[in-house]
Amino acid sequence: MSPNRPGRPRDERVDAAILQATRVLLAEAGYAGLTVAAVAARAGIGKAAIYRRYATKQEMVFAATMHGAQVPQPPDTGSLRADLRWLAATITGMIGAPGVGGVLGGLLADMEDEAVATAMRGFAALERATIALILDRATARGELPAAPDPAFVHAVMMGAIFARLHVFGEGDREGFADDLASTVAGGLIHPAGGLPRQGDGTATPG
Amino acid sequence: MSPNRPGRPRDERVDAAILQATRVLLAEAGYAGLTVAAVAARAGIGKAAIYRRYATKQEMVFAATMHGAQVPQPPDTGSLRADLRWLAATITGMIGAPGVGGVLGGLLADMEDEAVATAMRGFAALERATIALILDRATARGELPAAPDPAFVHAVMMGAIFARLHVFGEGDREGFADDLASTVAGGLIHPAGGLPRQGDGTATPG
């Protein structure tokens, strides 16, 4: 209910009804069985009200299960490791619910559709802007010589947590998030091996 | 055609025919449209010959697109970074073909089926054994104070490469593999932040 959010209060109630109906039907019927028509019927609105907000079923599902146009903004914890630990916890909270693996699998299987892929890239850009903020702060603090590519850190953090939770079995979520934050922060600060780094064109010692 | 492989040569031709028919039909019809019956018909064999080898359609698809019971064994390159760079290239080769994202998405959407999840865990265990070898070598070399959990490194390497190639857009594969190997090796050698590490129970300085 942010005052900066576009749309009148009446529209916000429709927004919420669509997202809620989508979640209920995903739990009942799964991703493959979900249709825009069924969501509209369950929410008590017309399909056109959904298509004014989401170009595709997949975009609606992503917004209902992961996030919409607002993503959480990182607090400045004072260190890259603690900022990445916050990020790991936030991603785990976002994708960690039971059933989200199947939903993301369904979305992925539909990514060959260009409209779906474009929408997913839009959501990814929002996530990446959050990561860019974390990396820029670490550079300003002097922890990093230059900000690494946010797309690189995005793929590592999202991919690792997704694989752990939904592909290989979740195990100890807190311990995994701790290890991931320590390893990625440590590796960005002290990359092994003398390879050129993105962003500064120089080689870094291992 | 390893002499250690169980089965007579006649059986190996059937093995190969099943895998080839699966790949052809995946390219033609996609994962969702694939059936064991269609693969049997295309390979010119009975369905029973398939079910003697694979408990489910999903297991057959995984073997045809990713790997079967044999996975590539890592050469000892002399450093953790270079061993992980080999691993990144091997994973990229394994999952990087066009269409594999959709296949893996379909498999993931089917993971709520316990038989499918069990088979996927079996394939994951093979991959993890390869990673354990790399980590044990790095420990023997003195690069690491104790071998980290192979399951942790597995989720990070597989997840990051999968996310980059099939979710967020592939970009520069070689550069990504370089950065991933440097960051993960660097972070295992110099984890940030003084958290306890798995395997030795002590804290490491950042």
Automatic annotation (TrEMBL), chains A, B:
<dbReference type="InterPro" id="IPR009057">
    <property type="entry name" value="Homeodomain-like_sf"/>
</dbReference>
<dbReference type="InterPro" id="IPR036271">
    <property type="entry name" value="Tet_transcr_reg_TetR-rel_C_sf"/>
</dbReference>
<keyword id="KW-0804">Transcription</keyword>
<dbReference type="Pfam" id="PF16859">
    <property type="entry name" value="TetR_C_11"/>
</dbReference>
<dbReference type="InterPro" id="IPR050109">
    <property type="entry name" value="HTH-type_TetR-like_transc_reg"/>
</dbReference>
<keyword id="KW-0238">DNA-binding</keyword>
<feature type="DNA-binding region" description="H-T-H motif">
    <location>
        <begin position="35"/>
        <end position="54"/>
    </location>
</feature>
<dbReference type="Pfam" id="PF00440">
    <property type="entry name" value="TetR_N"/>
</dbReference>
<dbReference type="GO" id="GO:0003700">
    <property type="term" value="F:DNA-binding transcription factor activity"/>
</dbReference>
<dbReference type="GO" id="GO:0000976">
    <property type="term" value="F:transcription cis-regulatory region binding"/>
</dbReference>
<feature type="domain" description="HTH tetR-type">
    <location>
        <begin position="12"/>
        <end position="72"/>
    </location>
</feature>
<keyword id="KW-0805">Transcription regulation</keyword>
<protein>
    <submittedName>
        <fullName>TetR family transcriptional regulator</fullName>
    </submittedName>
</protein>
<dbReference type="InterPro" id="IPR001647">
    <property type="entry name" value="HTH_TetR"/>
</dbReference>
<dbReference type="InterPro" id="IPR011075">
    <property type="entry name" value="TetR_C"/>
</dbReference>
